[in-house]
Amino acid sequence: MNLIIDIGNTVAKIAVFSGDEIVEVLRGSNHSIDCVGMLCNKYPITKGIIASVITLSNTIRKQLAKLNFPVLELTYKTPVPIQNLYKTPETLGMDRLAAVVGANYLMPQKDILVIDAGTALTYEFIDAEGRYWGGNISPGIYTRFKALNACCDKLPLIEKNGDIPEFGYDTATAIRAGVIKGLEFEITSYITLMKKKRPGLLVFLTGGDNFSFDASLKNTIFADRFLVLKGLNRILNYNVT
């Protein structure tokens, strides 16, 4: 069994895989992985991988050092089962790389747009030949809410849950509708543009946020909130048999 650790900007996701199947997933602090000991006692784990978009804390490094099996730390130098055409691989977020690996593994020989809606909203393109061309980075939902509050003196910080009218009838709904509908329009435009260039394009949507799309797009969008974890599991198996 494999231990997969994804350290994000906000939380850590820790999973156990048996082959290609997820057995258990836990979420927790991105500065400590206290649950790993419990998982190791519960499952016969023989190897692991960790990827992080932040500097790993000393606490996590000490916790990893106590494990009785090897843990691969994913870096830009780690071999991956796709061709990475990103011109500055040392600056590429490992979650972005893992997501395209996961999508390519689940849907090989397909043109794929991967959209990850988290703290940042990222767009990645990998073609049917397994070549990753790169992507774009945009602020995610909560990042946009926080930016409006931080940069505009009289705008409050609001939650994403609530009424989303076509046009806001007060400041809270104006912000909520502006942010969420703006994100939906942005994502839809990316998909529409890419579909014109790549008619057989498939779209993977992952991350913690959900969006509404019209029927013409829904049949080519695959929602998979564990895409990064699946990609990390694929990279681990590719490197360690």
Structural commentary:
With 241 residues, this protein is α/β, with parallel strands linked by helices. It folds into two domains: 1-73, ATPase, nucleotide binding domain (Nucleotidyltransferase, domain 5, 2-Layer Sandwich); 75-241, ATPase, nucleotide binding domain (Nucleotidyltransferase, domain 5, 2-Layer Sandwich). The chain has helices at 36-42, 58-65, 94-106, 141-151, 171-197, 215-218, 227-239; strands at 2-7, 12-18, 21-28, 47-52, 71-73, 83-84, 112-117, 120-126, 131-139, 202-207, 221-223. The strands form two sheets. It has a six-stranded mixed beta sheet, sandwiched between helices. The chain has a five-stranded mixed beta sheet with strand order 3-2-1-4-5, with helices on both faces. α4 (141-151) crosses α5. The longest helix is centred in the C-terminal third of the chain and has 27 residues, at 171-197. The chain is globular and about 60 Å long.
